[in-house]
Design brief:
The chain is an alpha/beta fold and 412 residues long. It folds into two domains: 2-128 and 208-319, ANL, N-terminal domain (Rossmann fold, 3-Layer(aba) Sandwich), CATH 3.40.50; 323-411, GMP Synthetase, Chain A, domain 3, CATH 3.30.300.30. It has eleven helices and 19 strands. Helix 2 (17-26) crosses helix 6, helix 8 packs across helix 9 (187-199) and helix 9 packs across helix 10. The protein binds zinc ion.
Length: 412
Amino acid sequence: MRRIFNTALDLVTGFSMQSGLSAVLEMDNWQRGAIDQYQCEKFEKLREYAVRSEIYKNHVGSDLSGFLLFSKEFVQENFNRFRTNIRKPYSIEYTSGSTGNPKKVVVSKEMIQAKRIAHLKMLTWYDLKREDKEVYIGGLAQPSFKKFYYFLKNKVYLPSNNITKQKAREYIRIINRHKPRILFSYPYALDIILSYAEQMKKNLHQPEVVYTGGENMEPHIKNHLIQHFPYSSIVNEYWATEANIGVTCPSGNMHADEDTIIIETVNQDEDGFGDILITNLYSYDMPLIRYDLGDRIKLSDAQCPCGRKTMIIEEIRGRTVDYYYLKDGRRIAYMDMRISRFVDNVIVYQVVHHKKDDTFLFKYVLREHSRSMDTESLHHFFRKNLGIELYFKEVDHIHTEPSGKFRVFASI
Ligand SMILES: [Zn+2]
């Protein structure tokens, strides 16, 4: 029944999922030369649309390297000059943007289709189907008519915002009752739920795949997931509003979705991390060509044991813009705040910088109330290494962003 529902839905929405999926899966067997050739042809098609925009009108015949790099600010300020106006836009979306300045992107129907197919590709890699039971933890509470839609899709949808102990208990109960084959979550939401599971001494059902997306998957969260789901494949779906970018294969490497995007990196540091630029081969309404996504990534030359020849993304370091700007002119990266060793008795924390008076508030949810947090050592560390005075506040949960996403480091 659910299969019929999905097929009917594809017909109504006009997405040709099955043929698209077969085409994308073929790439799994291609040699590098065939992938490059495919990208060249797709790029030429994109360029035909791009030259209809004011900004790219002189790029007839240019190859990719002939396209200029524009800053994110320039793209936003000249938004309309990038548009091709070939048809009514399918959707205009706003990204949350970690600095609080949302970015506007025209999303084509083909871009949405590529994302849905990329998701089906991931399920196929793991021998799963989209009709398989899924618990999805992300975003905000859904209106009740959507609940029926998710029921037909065999999905249980749970919002990821403001997870308290009570909510975590309920979510654990739901996961254990439904026994999903697929569990999705924003990484921080699941991290908090797992910490509460430890506190309450509860075990979780083991899905076949636990996949994450929406936020950067920090290494400590990945380790936490592996510890709790030893029998599950841990998969990261690296997506942005602008494109589906990559997904983890069954051998554990993240492969770029090279059917959809061309990846480049610039401004590489000595560790091999560079700013990621993407060209979305389906961005026909507002061409995203060598577009600065705002993350820093490291690409790998290694051959994956799975045999796929698409590029491997070794590590993602998230947004480059997570800095605190202090009144005295200093810029402090959140990486400088090596906090982890001070927070073993903490479920979750957040460091909030109040710009008005340059104070820092450390909010935390305590794990075991029988012992306190070592606030003195952390206070000393901040004062000595960063010259920052830290204030502490114990809370019962940390507020998420309006999108349901979590921010460890915030400025207000
Ligand atoms: Zn692989």
